[in-house]
Amino acid sequence: MTAAPRPNGLRAGPLAELLNRLRARLRSNVLLHGVGTLAAALCLWIAFSFVADYFLNVPRWVRFVHLGVFSGLGVFVARRELLKKFAAVPGPSGLALLAERARPELDSLLVSAVEFQQRETPEESAERVGAVVAAAERVAPELDLALVVQRKPAAQRFALGAGLFGALALGLGVDAERGSIFLQRFLGSNTPWPKRTDLDLQIRLAEGQARIERDGEVLRVAVPRGIDVPISVVATGDQPSGVRLRFASGQDLMLSPTAGGGFGTVLRSVGEPLEFWATGGDDRDRIPRVELEVLDPPDLSALTLTITPPAYTGLQPVTVYDADARALVGSTIRVGAKVQPLGARGIVRLLPSDQVLKLEPAQFTDADGAIGAGLGLSFVLERDVRLRFELRDESGLENPDPGLIAIDAIEDRRPELEVQSPGRSDVETVVGGALALRVLASDDFGLGPVRWQARESRDESWTIEQELPRVGVPPDRGKTGGARAIHFRRIDVNELSAASAPAGSDSGTEPWDPVGLQFVIQATAEDTSEPPRSGTSVPVRLRVLSSDEFLRRLQDRLATARVDTAELSTAQRAARARAQELLLSMTEEGGAGELDVRALQKTLNSQRRVGSDAEALLRELTSVAELVLYARLDDSADALLDLYEQASAERYEQRFDAAPWRALTASPEASAGDAIGLTTHLLEIVSIALTLAEDRAVAANVALDDALSRGGGGSTREALVASIEAQGQVLTECENLLDRLAEWDNLQSIIGLTRDLLRRSEALQERTVRYAK
Known about the structure:
By secondary structure, this protein is of the alpha+beta class. The chain is 43% helix and 25% strand. Strands 2-3-10-9-5-6 form a six-stranded mixed beta sheet, with no helix packed on it. Strand 24 and strand 25 (464-467) form a beta hairpin. Helix 1 packs across helix 3 (92-99), helix 4 packs across helix 5 (126-139) and helix 10 crosses helix 11. The protein is elongated.
């Protein structure tokens, strides 16, 4: 028969105690695990919400989403990890089955005992059931529940939740301000976060370049138009990776990092009002906001420079309008400036000395003669200067681009002396001879006294100093400006006696013999500046020779001229032969081919070289003749010398001038002297050289030029014939010159032999007298 079931309760005993302890352990693990999981999930979400809100400053609706997720997450985790798991704790049979896992060999002993106790047991089975229950009661105390239900995983989960909760509470508690702000914002408040980055926007302009006023959160800046505005942003707190300058017009500008850890840029040539602010990191509050106002700065509207040269120049004052200027050193510069606005004041900085002069109120006269109010100052010019005008108006605003005016200082140069005669720096003469000192003196403003001075070459100081007479003024004075004058003096060798005296003798008792001495002569001049500047000429070295030595050197130079004349004759013959060949190559019609034109050009070049050689020969012969003239070797030299100086009085340049020699050779005095006079003989040679170089050679060049320009035909043939005739005349003059030079050589040979005979006669006479004694 089947017994009716018993109530669900178990009788008291070790088995009931075992199952009660197992149930308590399961519920404890569920509680630990559930609470830990719930705490961990909620703490992690709160941490995520904090980070998102703190760093991203999320809007309010996002924070409401975060709060909703927090609430839903709590309910979900509590239901899943606590309620459901509490409900899943098994009853006595399940607990008994779970407990037997510690002793698998019991073979469901505990489960059988629990089930037997939960229902009525038939009488015939009571003994066996009692035996099973008794066996279970005996085994129950021996079971170790730690092998069935482990507490460590639940404790770890609880520790995780508690740790996260503690860390979150600690973090919010350490920074109570941010923790409180987060909780308020998490619950829906709009309490702002404290900024991690604070940007300070600065306008870095010097005093006077801007007017800056702060009105609460607005920075009002007034700058002059066209100025460059440097902007600097300094970040305190967390350094942002970048800073942008945002304008009210919608544009933005990325700022560049600076050396000091800030950010900066420059607004170039600001010409219109601007409104802007800086953003970077979490600073987006537009504080401070800059309102940039552009004003018209003070500026120069007109400028005058009145230049008054020093009194010694005799120059009149000059006024320059709105332009750079040039002025003589020592000039007084009067600066007049008309400024806008009229109340502006300022200074002038002289560069590069950096001297500062103050602009004072003064009358201003413009280019049209209108007089008005202005500013002015004056100074004396000493060097090149640049005037920098720095102006400031009544509000303290300065001109951003100070004007620069240049004044170039002109130095008052020293007088310049150009020795025109003698033509060489080393000259020779004889006792009784002279030196023609002809000097062109010039100065940029005014000439003072011009002197000549002399000394013996072995002396250190000048022993003679006399005035050098002025004989004329060059006709080109108006073109070159300044002062120019020709000064001339004939210096006799005997005048130089004061510059030298016989060593160890009394100059008053012994005659002065300058033979072998060398003198240094030069000209000096002063200008009219204060103090005067002096200039010197190139020194001329004059060597006094004996008559024999002088004639020997003269003979050597003429011998060289004779060789040059022979070479000139040879070159002329070759050029004439080429011209004749060219003439023969032409047809009767006068046609000339391309090769003939090139040959004609080659012939012309050869003839031009002949002409230049003839000019060089003429200059050499006139130099020798001038040397003989001033040596005054014969009686006719003085009259010829006066005539030569009179003819060359109009010469103002150092270049060779044939006009005085033409006048001299054509004068009656040139042929009135002794037939064998040295001077007249040389003038005849010069006359032939003049005809050769100035007439015949020039005619040959002109004829060949004419032939080349005609380009063929009968006219070319005629021009060639004329050039050949002129070349023949050049050869004739060369032969005449060679003959005259040969006569000179013979004459000098005769003079030399005569001089030797005289010396030998004197020696014989002395020996005869000695033998007679």
